[in-house]
Amino acid sequence: MPGNSFGEMFRVTTFGESHGPAIGGVVDGVPPGIAICEADIQHDLDRRRTGQSRHTSQRQEPDQIEILSGVFEGRTTGTPIGLLIRNQDARSKDYSDIKDKFRPGHADFTYAKKYGLRDYRGGGRSSARETAVRVAAGAIARKVLGDDVLVRGALVQIGPHGIDPENWDWNEVAKNPFWSPDPACVKKWESYLDGVRKQGSSTGAIIELTASGIPAGLGEPVFDRLDADIAKAMMCIPAVKGVEIGAGFAAAILSGSENADEIAIGEDGQPVFLSNNAGGTLGGISSGQDIVVRFAVKPTSSILTPRRTVTTSGEETEIITKGRHDPCVGIRAVPVGEAMLAMVLADHLLRFRGQCGA
Q: For all residues of the chain together, what is the average pLDDT?
């Protein structure tokens, strides 16, 4: 099964299934001498964990990280860093009554067509459970980037209800279960999701990420453009269906004079951009401005609302998916998106150093 690795110089390979004994990964390319411990990684994993509010899956996984290799006496050795997270609260019996049915919106059908079989227990390898390892790897990527780089994310829309950008306050993000930068949205989202859950359905979301402190010059022109790799990083997160950088699709309605980010000389005598429609990249290379990314997450496909489907033997039927599922998987996608962005930036930072020696 190819396609389990991501990145070039900062390279992450993951393994494991939702209801297997464990999930884990190997992070290679990390320079030696970087201070890191399990607590540094655990902090980010705790932000992604299920069961922390009624608005996420109630699966109770501690997501306790184990570092198996690549770290000695609190510092990276330059060798591959092995990571392991043991699964402790899988309930495979929740899926026994649908093992012969394809869940609409899930990867059941395509996995069966590709491999001739599938792990029906929570989706197996296709489950978003795998993203816990990405968050762990993202914590290591943040260490590679250093304290001058700040990668953070926020939920800006749930279903049809978006935030008011005028109310944006990063300090509010950690104070509510939705990662909302607009405190006025919290009660609205709570009420909306309670209704969605009672209906046995689910809803989608939009997440916005920002990376500050990125030096100019990261990214490889043409095929490995920084924005192209960021887009891939977001699109390979389960349930993501759209990505935009900077002004994104809104750029299509701007004129050339509106869209072009003018440049002036700042008080320090250095060039400064007067806007950021480009989202921090020009020609696939970082401009030194904030990297700004948004991605859309579809509604969770595991729902209690009956849906038409077919069985593995080709018979039409109906299906409902019991078990513990997120009414809006986009909530927990915030730390996952941060991790993927950090991984791309760490990868391109190391590539820049390798080519340009800086």
A: 92
